[in-house]
Amino acid sequence: MSIHKHPEHTGPLLPKMLWAAFAVVVVGGLLLGLTRQSRMVSSLNDAINSCQAEAAAEKDGLRDTYGIVTIVSNESGVTRFLSLCDTNPPLAKQIFRESITSGSKSARLIALYSAWYLAEQNQLEEQDLKAIVACIDPNKGNDEAVRKAAQRTLSDLTVLTNVADASQYEVVPSCTKEPAAEAPPNKIQTRQEKQRRTGQPGLAIRWSNAEVAYCWWQAFSPKGAWDNSLQRFVISAAAPASVPAAPDAGAATQVKGKSANPESGVPNPTPSQAKIQK
């Protein structure tokens, strides 16, 4: 009977230094993977905070060019952030929330611009709408450009379902300040449009300036609520008759012509195609 002997152990198959080097490579790779996202977020934050964003010079909030955001630099970084709204919406929402609450003027403008795209990806919540409204608040020291962009965004995210009461929604609240001599008169306009996803008739709304928008919101928002499924702030109740009109409110009129509001049916680019004017 033959007995097979196991080969004698002659030492490690790989030198200790080689094992150590291998371990360093593995650990380094893990750390790199863990920090890649944080480094990307930091890079995008730097880009949108320093892109020198501004709101278009248009002063009439009823016009399509009002509140459009323009940039001077870091276009590629801003575009990468907007693309995240499509490719990685949760991460885009994280950057949006940080930017709109504690970012620079430029970052807040870019965040406001991105809100509609995040809504298309079902990312916005009630707290996000409140952050947008806070950007219009005249008591929070907001820059004029930020207030204009926030006004446009809020308009895009608001729908009135009581179509029969359009004229009541167009009453300018008496708390609205008188406009400057060179500014357009205080006005509110509505337009009948199909609601997002449901296809039911509804009303979009626009305000001639941020002061009108803020006062109107204080009067009418208690009648509505944020709808997570529609990704819109929906006001279903009739406009309260108790809201007093401003002395110079003037006759309410319907919006004419095409609107930049996405609900109007005018096609919008996907986030990856979106390009802020430069």
| Overall outline | globular
Distance between the ends: 89 Å
Helix content: 40-55%
- List low-confidence stretches: 247-269
The H/E string reads HEEHHHHHEHEEHEE
Cα-based radius of gyration, to the nearest Å? 26 Å
By DSSP, the count of extended strands is 7
- Total number of helices: 8
Please state how the strands of the largest beta sheet are arranged side by side: 3-7-6
**Beta content:** 5-15%
Structural class: alpha+beta
Largest sheet: 3 strands, mixed
Please tell me the overall pLDDT: 82
Give a summary of the structure in a few sentences.
The termini are far apart. This protein is of the alpha+beta class.
Overall description:
By secondary structure, this protein is of the alpha+beta class. 41% of the residues lie in helices and 10% in strands. The protein is built from eight helices and seven strands, in the order H-E-E-H-H-H-H-H-E-H-E-E-H-E-E. The protein has helices spanning 16-49, 75-87, 89-102, 105-120, 126-134, 144-156, 166-169, 210-220, and strands at 54-55, 69-70, 158-160, 188-194, 201-207, 224-227, 232-235. The strands form three sheets. A three-stranded mixed sheet has the order 3-7-6. Helix 4 runs parallel beside helix 6.
Topology at a glance:
Layout: H1 16-49, E1 54-55, E2 69-70, H2 75-87, H3 89-102, H4 105-120, H5 126-134, H6 144-156, E3 158-160, H7 166-169, E4 188-194, E5 201-207, H8 210-220, E6 224-227, E7 232-235
Parallel strand pairs: 3-7
Antiparallel strand pairs: 1-2, 4-5, 6-7
Helix pairs in contact: 1-2, 2-3, 2-4, 3-4, 4-6
